[in-house]
Structures are given as structure tokens and as C-alpha cells.
Amino acid sequence: YQGMFAIITPALISGAVAERIRFWPFCIFTVLWITLVYCPLAHMVWAFDWFDTSVPADKRGAGAIGLLALLGALDFAGGTVVHI
Predict the structure, then answer these.
(1) SS (H, E, C) 7-23
(2) Alpha-carbon torsion 19, 25, 26, 27, what sign?
């Protein structure tokens, strides 16, 4: 799911730079963009406390720990990360 959005988003960006940039610089941009922009934003929206051992086992995954999720952002279809 997240991998699909991580690839679709640079594909959307490619429409703006088509025939204006060579392929290899665009590949480098894509890798850097996914690493430095997409992954942190995805974590801010979709991070939950699944692996927090201080939370009882039956309550894990119920609490948001991502910054945007803590601020009340709800994202069920991935649009928040893609549009930001």
C-alpha cells in the first residue's frame, strides 16, 4: 500500500517535468524525494503504537504517535501524504 503511493506520487510529479529533465537525474530525484519527503510525511500521518511495549498488548495500535495524526488528521486513502 505505502510502496504503491510512494511510486505513484513521483509519477504524478513526472507530468510536470516531462521532456524537461533527463531520465537519470529524475531517477535520483525520485529516490531522494521518497526518502526525504514521502517517508517522513507518511510516518507523520500513519504511525501508530504497534511496537510500544509500555502499552498493554490488547491496546497496541490504537494510539497515534505521528505528528499529523496527533493533530487530528485522518487519512484512510493516502491522499494527505500525496497532496502534501
Answers:
(1) HHHHHHHHHHHCCCCCH
(2) positive
φ, ψ (nearest 5 deg) of residue 55:
-95, 135
Beta-carbon contacts of 75 under 8 Å, excluding residues fewer than 6 positions away, are: 45, 46, 81
Distances (CA, A) of 65 to 15, 27, 47: 34, 32, 6
Q: Dihedral sign, CA of 38, 39, 44, 50? A: positive
The pTM for the full model equals: 0.72
Query: What are the tens digits of pLDDT across the range 53-80?
Result: 787 878 777 777 788 888 888 777 777 8
